[in-house]
Amino acid sequence: MASEIKDIPLDSSVTVKTKGGQVIKQQKYCNGIDGCTVLHKPGANRFHMNITLVKDEFIDSISDVKEPSGVSGEDYIPVVDPERTKLRESKAVRNAQIEADKIGEGVSEEAQCIFNALSKTLPCRWRGKNIIVLEEVEIAEPYRVEDCKSLHAGDSTVQVRVQKVLDEERKKLS
């Protein structure tokens, strides 16, 4: 599939479906670096556009190819800075990993809702099926106020605060 995208002329309108199921309807901007293709959708003026980087190996299918008419896209397409592209990609991957880490594995929908609510105001992470809040308090299943325990002996002020927030969030979810 990757060779097909390379054969499509620049500035052609395409519909790309990724292996993840995402459908992208944009114009081919350029053949990028390291097996990526850059697609774009024009913005409000010629200086603004929405750019999508797609790794060729993640392309599942290409359809609705409409080649450009008139002036070739090569006449006005600027150079893509490979370093900036790599920085944007690494930032996007890092942000995707942060978002993925917020999803608990093997937890109930209620547990995920509690985590989401707590993480809006307090730093949280998953440790198995337990929620760690502020690296100070652990909340075990079934995620009630009485299931909170301090990770550090003798310091109950943070635990009391987390219990209060948890109680309020559970009331909102009820």
Descriptors:
single chain, 174 residues, alpha+beta, 5-stranded antiparallel beta sheet, 4-stranded antiparallel beta sheet, 4 helices, 9 strands, elongated
Describe this structure as you would to a colleague.
The structure is a single chain. The protein is an alpha+beta fold. It has helices spanning 2-7, 82-101, 109-119, 157-173, and strands at 13-18, 23-31, 36-42, 49-55, 59-66, 124-127, 130-133, 137-139, 148-150. The protein has a five-stranded antiparallel beta sheet with strand order 4-3-2-1-5. The protein is elongated. The mean pLDDT is 86.
Strand content: 25-35%
Number of DSSP strand runs: 9
Output the radius of gyration. 24 Å
End-to-end distance: 49 Å
How would you describe the shape?
A: elongated
Order of the strands making up the biggest sheet: 4-3-2-1-5
Rounded mean pLDDT score? 86
Low-confidence stretches: none
Helix content: 25-40%
> Which structural class do the helices and strands define?
alpha+beta
Supply the number of helical segments: 4
Largest sheet: 5 strands, antiparallel
Helix-strand string: HEEEEEHHEEEEH
List the helices and strands and how they pair.
Layout: H1 2-7, E1 13-18, E2 23-31, E3 36-42, E4 49-55, E5 59-66, H2 82-101, H3 109-119, E6 124-127, E7 130-133, E8 137-139, E9 148-150, H4 157-173
Antiparallel strand pairs: 1-2, 1-5, 2-3, 3-4, 6-7, 7-8, 8-9
Provide a compact summary of the structure.
The chain has helices at 2-7, 82-101, 109-119, 157-173, and strands spanning 13-18, 23-31, 36-42, 49-55, 59-66, 124-127, 130-133, 137-139, 148-150. The chain has 174 residues and is α+β, with helices and mostly antiparallel strands. The termini are far apart.
